[in-house]
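task queued by scheduler; priority normal; single chain, no ligands, no partner chains; default sampling; output format set to structure tokens
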Amino acid sequence: MDFPTSSKIKKVIICGAGEAGEMIAREINKHPRLGLEVVAFLDDDRGKTGREVAGIPVVGVTDEVTTAAERLGADEVLIAMPSAGGAVVRRIAERCIAAAVTYRILPGIFEIIHGDARLSQLREVEVEDLLKRDPIDLDLESIRESVTGKSILVTGAGGSIGSELCRQLTSFDPALLVLLGHGENSIFNVALELEQKFAAAKAVPVVGDIRDRAHMRAIFERYRPDIIYHAAAHKHITLMERNIEEAVKNNVTGTHVVAQEALRAGAGRFVLISTDKAVNPVSAMGAAKMVAELVVQCIRDRGPTEFVTVRFGNVLGSRGSVITLFKKQIAQGGPVTITHRDMTRYFMTVYEAVQLLIQAAAIGRNGEIMILDMGKPVRIVDLAYDLIRLSGYVPEKDISLEFIGIKPGERLSEDLFASYEDLKETPIDEIMMAIPPPIKAKADAVTPKIRQLEEAAAAMDRDLTAKLLGELVPSYNPEAAPTTELG
């Protein structure tokens, strides 16, 4: 971020008198042309009150930011607490609003790990910061054992989850990272970013379609991946309701092809990235993801490859996220459109989700479904209120809300596991394990049905595709699916 030279000195309070806050203060002190003066620190450790950090006094705790800002005539508050959870950030932001001072944040602790905290890293507070949880205590040894020195294939590498997977996997020093995606621009951008930020990473960009068996076979034969993270999927619920065949072709057939080729090549582990929409699904997208889970359950015992499913809810900031839509609507002056006042969803930041995904993939065993603890469900209307306030407006006064009703394929709330799944704890508090019912006895009956479904979708037979999807997934009602006709 660029701080222009100013003739007026802007008084700054830094929340966080730790290493990150001290780095920011020293940088400000070294560059008077920035027009900034740090007048005080606030820190939640009361033992620091009365001390000095970088020659600047610690005058209290962060809860006192409103009174401190008013007493010291502060113009801006810098939140330099990379490990703080969302509740802490929310509390500070609300007090800054009350004091009518601007505020910025230094994001995630990983930026301190990979280098010094810098003024250039400061940015506006985002809704992701408000929902961020406390740092996760990972079993790094199990992750290193599963990733370091391995050849890894990430499908959907250009997407939100896939690209973040690639970023985080590089820190565990894989021997090779194959970035597979259908969109050339997104794959190019991720490959370029990895080349610039992780020069030592051996990343190979590959443009291809997961449904293309010949190409997938060639990829497996050439790169011999030990681990496959299968992130490629169609995820947009209402769009897939009108494109059921494509939901099946990508989410079911694509998964089937990649899983079979992993098995054929003798890969060590196949990780299916699933969703809470696959639990008792009512949408075509969710039903297709449930069938994808069935696919890996049906073939899990046919060779040396271990098949692990990792299931979680919505990721903040992902493509097609409601956050993106809300921001656009706020920028246009509203209204912000919400389906229902009581609608809730599980949310997690993409960084947190991928952290736990890599951990779950490392500790999961063949046939297990690992479920990420998504915290408490969030009301969509509360999310909208947060975004409106962060944009400097008052909800229902400056920006109105409009409730438009539930769309096809949507429901008021989501579940992370089904009633028929046996839930167990794992060594990681934030990860649970669901044991699905034994499928061996019915795999012979399910597999031909899946094949028929894939053939119907390939033939673009919408009615038959919907009918077969409903037969495989009892909670899905094909009669409720909208037609693709115009008008």
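post-processing summary
- The longest strand covers residues 36-42.
- The domain at 147-440 is CATH 3.40.50.720 (Rossmann fold).
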